[in-house]
Design brief:
Blueprint lengths: L32 H14 L8 E7 L6 H13 L3 E7 L3 H13 L6 E5 L3 H10 L2 E4 L9 H7 L3 E5 L2 H6 L16 E3 L4 H17 L1 H12 L5 H16 L1
Amino acid sequence: GKFGGVLNGIDYGSWNPEVDKYIPHRYSATTFEGKFANKKALRGRLLLQDKFKPIVAVISRLDPQKGVQLISHSVFYSLANNAQFVLLGAGSDHNINHHFYRLKEGLNDNPDCHLEIGYDEQLSHLIYAGADIFVIPSAFEPCGLTQLIAMKYGVVPVVRSTGGLADTVFDANFAHKPYEERTGYTFENFDNAGLESALGRAIGLWYKFPRYFHQLRINAMNQDYSWNRSGQNYMNIYNHIKK
């Protein structure tokens, strides 16, 4: 009972679709049309076909902590379930990078998939602005930033329920939260079946119940994970110590 955590914050001056200088169309929870225009722009930049499909995205360091085997599985699961897939990331391990380069080579002619091995700041902003679903299958995660950024951009996160991911993403079906505070999909087991249980629900909602999927987006955008909130938590700790 003596232990607690303070979540990371993100800079809404930089990571915010209302003011983002890197995206072609700015938008908000109340002016959402720009999100769809950014999706079209993302497809144009990455040469994806412009079809009625959700875009599943990963922006990540590619190392064991981030669940590289599940990231790899999510590529093929997404494509098999009528979704497009975009990855931006690289790792320090030669074998992991080689694995993803081979995946990229094998999927190079697939009009529904693009793997970018490396990091590109401008492209990362466009991916957040254009994607529909964001996958974060970490083995462990003290807090994480990508799920917080994704939510601000109206991207529904699919995360493994661990660490800060469990503290910030609340399952659309099973969370003990009011519906307006539910923001994504979570899974427990660190395996392919666990990932599929959450990613399958997200893709299914996008196709079958678009109104509810849109509401999840708005729920996510309305959360406050700025430094204003986290900074106040630090102040509360210092004031408690001072007393």
